[in-house]
Amino acid sequence: MALVKFPTRNVNTDSVNPFVNNVFDSLFTDSFISDRLVTRVPAVNIVETDAAFELELAAPGLKKEDFTINVDKNLITIAAEKKTISENGDKSYSKREFNYNSFSRSFTLPDVVNYNNIDANYVDGVLLVKIGKKEDAIVTKRSIEVM
User: Where is the SHSP domain (predicted)?
Assistant: First the structure.
């Protein structure tokens, strides 16, 4: 098998019609299109400790009033909606990327969860949801002596 290197751009292509090439290059490499193709769901870390599960959800730029957390049977749903008010005022934007609409993430809870012991806290752009375990599910650690 032979490897053949193809040129990325022909030298004479720009001389024919440079405007067309510049438009297509800027259109397909613009971050506006690539940003729309990326999903807008925040990343989540799930940590299990001896007494609880902790969900850390990265959602900067929101307020704690923007979040809704619902528990339905064994499903917890974390959603946020930020309403952007467009004011035309005296600003004329050539590109505007401040538009984070909404997201929703759902997680299945195991049987060991204590549904009365769920707390949420939003600090520095990270939503921390702490889900406690039932008392009988918490394993106590002890040292066993071999005889």
Answer: 35-147
- Domains of the chain, by residue range, sit at 42-86+99-140
pLDDT in tens, the chain (147 residues): 566 655 655 555 555 555 555 555 555 555 554 455 445 688 899 999 989 999 999 988 888 899 999 999 889 999 998 876 555 556 776 766 655 578 899 999 999 999 999 999 999 999 999 999 988 877 666 777 786
> What is the model's pTM?
0.61
47 residue type, one letter: V
3-state helix, strand, coil in the chain (%, to 5): 20, 35, 45
Distance in angstroms (rounded) separating the CA atoms of residues 33 and 12 = 28
Nearest partner of 57 among 77, 71, 72, 34, judged by Cα: 77
